[in-house]
Amino acid sequence: MYKYSLENGSWYLKDGQGTIILMTDELAVAYDSETMTMLKHGDKELVQKYVDKMRKAGMLNTNILLFSKSSPVDEINNIVLNATYLSHFIKKFSTISLPPVYAFENNLTTPLFEKIKEKESEVALLGSQFSYDEDDQKYIQDSFEKATKELESLYAQLN
Questions:
Q1: Number of domains into which the chain is organized
Q2: pLDDT of 122-159, one tens digit each?
Q3: Would 11 be classed as within a structural domain?
């Protein structure tokens, strides 16, 4: 079983015997944004090359998520061990804070709450995307800001 650890400011991927498989200062995962499945993990530059290659091949849903040094190591290992864990990770660590009413009534299935859930997922996904291409990154940032404003508008309807 492979596991990441953060040691002396660098990410290490080790096998079950503790043998170092990878050492990098910038850790990233490639994922399919439609299925929220992790496709590749490792050094940021290699993962970005993989994403670029997949997009050129027509797989436009392939995106990259870059981890910071403060990212929870156990959660990263969960992503590596279970390719479908990424959607849970993104929902769990979304930067969008929920209004108190939603925290108490999140089991409601009204059309407004369904719209909120859908928009929250979109915002979490856009907030996790990153591209080295300036035009792509601008599009991602603009889309994130637009979706965030739409989500705030939906939250306002709760009052």
A1: 2
A2: 766 666 666 666 777 788 778 878 887 887 887 777 65
A3: no
pTM here?
A: 0.59
For 155, the token pair is 């939250």
Domain identity same for 102 and 140: yes
Q: How far apart are CA 75 and CA 85, in angstroms?
A: 9
- Taking the alpha carbons at both ends of the chain, their separation in whole angstroms is 49
Is residue 20 situated within a structural domain? no
Residue 71 falls inside a structural domain: yes
Q: Residues 39, 85: one domain?
A: yes
pLDDT tens digits along 90-132: 777 654 444 433 333 344 445 666 677 677 667 666 666 666 6
Instruction: Give me the helices (H) in the chain, please.
Output: 44-56, 73-81, 86-92, 100-105, 111-128, 134-156
